[in-house]
Each structure stands twice: as structure tokens, then as C-alpha cells.
Design brief:
alpha/beta, five-stranded parallel beta sheet, 5 strands
Amino acid sequence: MLITFSGSDGAGKTTQINLLIDRLRANHLRVKYFWSRAGYTPGFLAFKRVLRFCLGEKIAPPSGESARRTQMLSDPRIVYIWGTLAIIDLIIYYAIALRYYRWRYDAVVCDRFLPDTHLDFLINHPSASLTDLRIWKTLKKIAVKPDCSFLLTVPVAVSQLRSKQKGEPYPDDEQTLQIRLKNYLDSSLFPVNQYRHLNGMESPDFLSEKIKKHLNLIKPIL
């Protein structure tokens, strides 16, 4: 079974994922946790380290926020190359690795999925139209389809407060969080017939019970 979690920063995704994994393992199920983000997967990070080693930091700046990095990613040609490589990397993760994990394990729990990457592209590279690329459309066609998807959201002010409490190194600003929340609530990106929307303001235990009941409606595993 493939289960995905998406949603606002500070909405409680990590808490619910951990609670679910604990429950599944308590039921003697083999569980695989799976996290992904375009450009930040272990494979892509390893590729960038090799690139920096070969080209030097003057050409390939270090990871993290920096003026040089921002300047480089303002070049449409660089964004196109970066986006294409990142999507190829995600094909390996979503079309190949996930199929293997779903065969190997009783349940695979994904922290983020394709619509989250779509949203990242829209916010971080609005002029690049990465989601119009043929390779992105190919990825959407061949990626594994989730059995169940959950979407957790909280108001922007709550997201900011919780990110500060967690000590997030690079939190989104208020405007970006507003855009993210608006898109999370957009049914064209997160269809209501595919995503079970959960209110992150409710207590973790209450949300955990909701998730349990919803999963058992689809496939009794808890």
C-alpha cells in the first residue's frame, strides 16, 4: 500500500507519519518511509557534490541560501537544465524505486509527492514552466499511483509560529506561505477525490484516529 502525506509547513505531517509508521509496525507490517524533493534527493545531492568538486564553487556554488545561488537560478537556461535533471532523478524515485518498495514492503509512507514538487516549481521558478516540459508529463504518467493521500493544512500564522518553534533554518516568508496554502486548497492541484483533507489545528491523536479509520475503509491494515 502506498500512502502519501502533503501539506503546509508545521501542519503536523511528520508527527502523523511517525504515528502511522508506529501503528503499522505494531501490526507486524513491513514499512518503508520515503521522502523526496526535487533537487534534494540523496542521489541528486551526491551528483551536486561531484559537480562542485569537478567545477569548483565559483561555477557551482555551495548548497543553501546565497546571493550567488539566487543569481544563477535566475538564468532560465540554468533553471531548465536543473529542472530537467531533477525530474529525471524523480523518475528514478517515483517510477522505479517506489515500485520496488511497494513490492518489497507491506506499506510505503511518502513524505511529499508529485503535487508538492509541482507546487515547488510554480513558486520557485514561475517563469520556467517546468511542469509544461514533456519529461514532467512523462513522469506524471509513469509514476506509481498512491492508494491513499492525505493533505494537512494550517493557517499561515500558525505555520510561521510552528516553524519558528522547530528552528527551521530556511522558513518561507509570509507571502510564500500564503501562496502555498492557496495552492494546497486548489482542487486542480490537490483533487478532493484523491486527497483526504485534514485540519492540522486538530489534536495529533484525533488526526491519527481519522487517518486510521480512512485507511481501514480502503484496505483494513490497522
